[in-house]
Amino acid sequence: LKGMAHSKHSQIFWPKDFLHSPSGYIIGWNVSKLIACVVSVIPYSEIEGIEEVEERIKDISGVVILGQWFRNGDDMAPLTIKDESMIWITMEEDTATEFPLLRELYCYGYRYTSTCQVILYEQPSSAYFFSTRPLRLSESHRKSNKANLMLPSEGSAFGSSELEGILQQINESYEVRRALHKRQESHNRRRLSLSEAAPNLWHYIQKIFTVIRMPMLLYTQFLLSLLNYDMPLFGKLKDISAFGEVLEGKLQVTRLRSSQWDNLRQTQQHTLSSRVTFLSIFNSLWLMGIDILLGIIFGAILLCYEDQVWAMLRESQTFLNEHMLKSQIQWLMGWPAGFKLNDNLDRFLGMVFLFYIDRWTVIMNGLAPFAPWIFRAVAFTGIFGFSATIAIGLDLVSFFTFHVTCFYIASARIYSLQLNVLSSLWKLFRGKKNNPLKSRIDSCDFDIDQLLLGTLLFTLFFFLLPTTAIYYFFFTSVRVCMMMPS
Predict the structure, then answer these.
(1) Three-class DSSP labels, 210-247
(2) What sign results for the dihedral spanned by CA atoms 459, 460, 461, 467?
(3) What pLDDT, in 10s, does the model give residues 396-451?
(4) pLDDT for res 401
(5) What phi-psi label fits residue 61: left (phi over 0), alpha (psi between -120 and 50 degrees) or beta?
(6) What are phi and psi of 8, to 5 degrees?
(7) Angle at CA 92, nearest 5°, toward 90 and 94?
């Protein structure tokens, strides 16, 4: 029964890189049944016999000799059939299409007549791989560094687990080929070529990164502690500064990617999760590189057009103080849109705000000689990235409009105080009072003097409320306009 034919269907995954490979032994995995995944073809010219092939692939990710590959025009080697192999295939090149075709298939020495489906694939690299589960890479340092994997959709030609197993073998083919290449180098002792020198260069880069990694982590931890220090009256620096918030995010991502890189070097396992981790690190480095490049370009442009930008900022400052704030406050000091405000309170608030606008203008004029240094400082922050430059620009806008923030806070406090007083007096009319100890509204009996005083105060605050409300809504709208860029 040794030569009896059996009708079966086989599937062979063949790398595109070896479509025109010289004749030799086929190396790969027997995934399941009559499904084989080819990794490489070792030419007959590089070996002395099949024993050398077995020695070369020994202890490499479970790869075995799958069979033989014969290409037209090459010297034909003798056909070898391994009786103890679960699968032994003989492939040949189609003269018309130059694609691999199955000539013979043996299973434990028994010959099968098989319909064969050859599936070509592009071999992945350390940065790219195949998977039926789309990846969700998260850049947020607050999330776990594990990748979220979505389940594949049903209805595939393969079972989901079987197809994922085949793709896993294809993903491992990159490391297998690297291992085979290293063993071939040690066997032949050939002179290093350019492609062989590249891994050595990468090895030196890893050494340099390992040396500077610890000082970099210590400096990163120091900056994070400084940004998260809770200062009296001001709070944390990252909360009051856009540049601090951006820098804190960059440092967190740097620390996270550094720990992921360290774990990746220690495991030395090229699994799906390790490849996802590598993609996350590579993605972060790519985005950081683009950010730094844009920041340097923007800083150079800022230095080239320093005078024009400063003139534009001066005009913006003049427009804000003279045409937007002072003119509108003077309009509010009259009868704005026909509303009759309280003359005394309206005039007092308007004069106070106008006075501090003039004082702030004097301060800004005193800072004008330092404008070149400020521009250079902003331009040189481009080495931290374009996002850091934009963030420090927003901080400067917040500084130049600090008087608007103060006006908003003052008007908001006055308006809030009036509303609280009116709320308490309204409870007094209804015979109620607020109980702060039990956080509830209790009933209370008030005498005539208290009711009379409450009525007078309620009338006073009620008719003063429109004046303070007008200023509150005006400065609120101005502050919202100032905060829109951030």
Answers:
(1) HHHHHHHHHHHHHHHHHHCCEECCCEEHHHHCHHHHHH
(2) positive
(3) 888 888 888 899 999 999 999 999 888 888 888 777 777 777 777 777 777 778 78
(4) 86
(5) left
(6) -140, 165
(7) 150
CA dihedral 71, 77, 79, 85 (to 10 degrees): -80
User: In terms of C-beta distances under 8 Å and separation of at least 24 residues, what long-range contacts does 423-429 make, across chains too?
Assistant: 425/454, 425/457, 425/458, 425/461, 426/458, 428/454, 428/458, 429/454, 429/455, 429/458
Q: Could you tell me the two tokens for 250?
A: 């960059």
**Distance, CA of 369 to CA of 372 (rounded, Å):** 7
Per DSSP bridges, beta strands 88-93 and 35-43 are unpaired
Q: Average per-residue pLDDT in the chain?
A: 77
Nearest to 249 by CA among 213, 214, 287: 287
Helix (H) or strand (E) segment spanning residue 33: none
- Whether the Cβ atoms of residue 65 and residue 41 lie closer than 8 Å to each other: no
Residues 6+ apart with CB under 8 A from 476: 408, 411, 412
- In sequence order, which residues have a C-beta less than 8 Å from that of residue 334 and are 6 or more positions away? none
Considering only residues 78 and 146, tell me which one the structure prediction assigns the higher pLDDT. 78
| DSSP assignments along 164-190, one per residue | HHHHHHHHHHHHHHHHHHHHHHHHH-P
SS3 134: coil
Taking the C-alpha atoms of residue 325 and residue 133, their distance in angstroms, rounded to an integer, is 57
Cα–Cα dist 91/72, whole Å: 11
Nearest to 38 by CA among 205, 148, 172: 172
Q: Calculate the alpha carbon distances from 235 to 1, 228, 413 in Å.
A: 86, 9, 20
Q: Is the dihedral of CA 364, 369, 374, 375 positive or negative?
A: positive
DSSP string, 110-130: EEEEEEEEEEEE----SS---
Helix axes 272-304, 371-380, angle to 10 degrees: 160
- From CA 70, how far away is CA 68, in angstroms rounded? 7
Q: Give the Cα separation of 61 and 271 in Å (integer).
A: 12
- DSSP-based three-state secondary structure for 385: coil
User: Per the structure block, which two tokens stand in for 170?
Assistant: 């294809």
Q: Is the pLDDT of residue 64 over 80?
A: yes
Full DSSP string of 449-482: HHHHHHHHHHHHHHHHHHHHHHHHHHHHHHHHHH
SS3 of the chain: helix, strand, coil, percent, to 5: 60, 15, 25
445 and 405 Cβ atoms separated by less than 8 Å = no
